[in-house]
Write a structure and sequence with these properties.
This protein is of the alpha+beta class. It contains nine helices and eleven strands. The protein folds into three domains: about 130 residues, PAS domain (Beta-Lactamase), CATH 3.30.450; about 70 residues, no CATH class; about 150 residues, Reverse transcriptase/Diguanylate cyclase domain (Alpha-Beta Plaits), CATH 3.30.70.270. Helix 1 runs antiparallel to helix 3.
């Protein structure tokens, strides 16, 4: 077959098929247009009928002439395709109604009843759409049958031309390639025979050339892969080591940013974040929440008399006491210097008081030894509970700090509830 009669000749068949498909689309478009026109005609007819009925009912509604309203409604209901007529007064009360039959498919047309420029009621006319739907369905069915028959004929024609001229040759090419893939080979071992000079023949010829180049490049690539593989393994080992170092460094930085280095308790930054979260939960679920502030009595004297190493050890041991005393739901922290804090969730002032009393007793009874000298350590504490007048972090901090100040003023080695702090304090 000459090249000019290759795919170009077969394209004529495809164009013919496209033209037929277009005619089918036009046919369906025409059906939709007919449907639109019929629907529009029905809408105009139904609305005109409703408007006419409303005009005829105006004087009857004013005169409360129920008898003639019934006659008017029946006369309109007797019109073709009219299912029923309802006449309402301005209060929406039915003055007359005529129902001919019932159907699931209908459209309702409404019109106001106007007398001397005022709306005194309304008319509703129900028009059946059964005949419209039946006509459209019949038209659809006819077109479907025609196009199915035409499609069968077209399918036979396309099969005869396309199967012999294109599909069988492409199928042979694809089988050869699939067999190569199934064997796990990277390229076809031998050239595919070229039997024509049309587009398919040229395609096979190009495939053979590409396949030859692929074989050459595959051999070169394998050589390069072998060289790069060893380098990649070495780099991968190095990357894993660097990644471990980076993760350890990030973990250390994260811990340093949120943990007090001396006591291993959460620092002020972490404590404030937890405080915000607990406060939000307390507000949302109406839960109890108490804040305890703790300050070591005369801490400066410990540093001055025994050195900062002794002061650091006191801070560490106070932090340990806090960890041992609080519950899992509580959040202890070192705020800075010799100041500590505890957030007690699900706890009011009385429950916080019980925990603080136990903590102060432990600290006071413990003997701190520095350089062979025993030292007694005491702490002061202020307790404030979240409530209507203390519903922000700042207000709760202020209240607990005020209670702590009162404990210091009263002689230290004690705790004070904010609710017991005198107003003038």
């Amino acid at each position: 077959m000459a090249q000019g009669w290759g795919l170009s000749a077969k394209l004529i068949v495809y164009v013919a098929a496209g033209a037929i498909a277009t005619s089918v689309a036009v046919g369906f478009a025409r059906v939709q247009n007919e449907r639109s026109q019929l629907s529009k005609l029905m809408s105009n007819t139904g609305q005109n009928m409703a408007n006419t009925t409303a005009a005829g009912a105006a004087s009857l509604v004013v005169g409360y002439d129920y008898g003639n309203l019934e006659i008017l409604a029946r006369n309109v209901a007797d019109q073709p395709n009219v299912m029923g007529v309802t006449i309402l007064n301005k209060n929406g009360r039915t003055m007359s109604q005529a129902v001919v039959n019932t159907t699931k498919q209908y459209r309702r047309f409404k019109a106001p009843i106007v007398f001397d420029g005022a709306v005194i009621g309304s008319v509703a006319v129900d028009v059946s759409t059964d005949q419209l739907e039946m006509a459209i369905e019949e038209l659809y069915a006819r077109i479907v049958v025609e196009q199915i028959f035409l499609g069968l004929i077209l399918g036979v024609i396309v099969y005869i031309f396309v199967s012999r001229g294109i599909v069988s040759r492409i199928h042979s090419l694809s089988e050869t390639m699939e067999a190569t893939i199934n064997k796990g080979e990277p390229y076809v071992a031998k050239e595919i025979e070229v039997t024509s000079s049309d587009e398919i023949g040229r395609l096979i010829n190009v495939f053979n050339k590409l396949n030859e180049q692929l074989a050459e490049n595959y051999d070169k690539l394998n050589t390069k892969i072998d060289l790069a593989d060893q380098a990649l393994r070495n780099k991968n080992i190095e990357l894993i080591a660097r990644t471990d170092e980076l993760e350890n460094a990030l973990e250390m930085l994260s811990s340093m940013a949120t943990t007090d280095w001396l006591t291993k308790l959460p620092n002020r930054r972490q404590f404030d974040e937890v405080f915000e979260q607990m406060l939000s939960q307390a507000e949302r679920y109406k839960e109890r929440l108490s804040l305890v502030l703790i300050d070591i009595d005369n801490f400066k004297e410990i540093n001055d008399n025994h050195g900062h190493a002794a002061g650091d050890e006191v801070l560490q041991q106070i932090g340990a006491f806090l960890k041992d005393t609080v519950r899992r739901s509580d959040s202890p922290a070192r705020l800075g210097g010799d100041e500590f804090a505890i957030l007690l969730y699900h706890s009011d002032e009385q429950q916080a008081e019980k925990l603080v009393r136990q903590l102060l007793k432990k600290i006071k009874s413990h003997v701190f030894n520095f350089g062979g000298q025993n030292i007694s350590i005491t702490v002061s504490s202020g307790i404030a509970e979240y409530g209507a007048e203390r519903n922000t972090k700042q207000s709760i901090y202020f209240s607990a700090d005020k209670a702590l100040y009162a404990a210091k003023q009263q002689g230290r080695d004690r705790y004070v509830l904010f609710s017991e702090v005198p107003k003038e304090a």
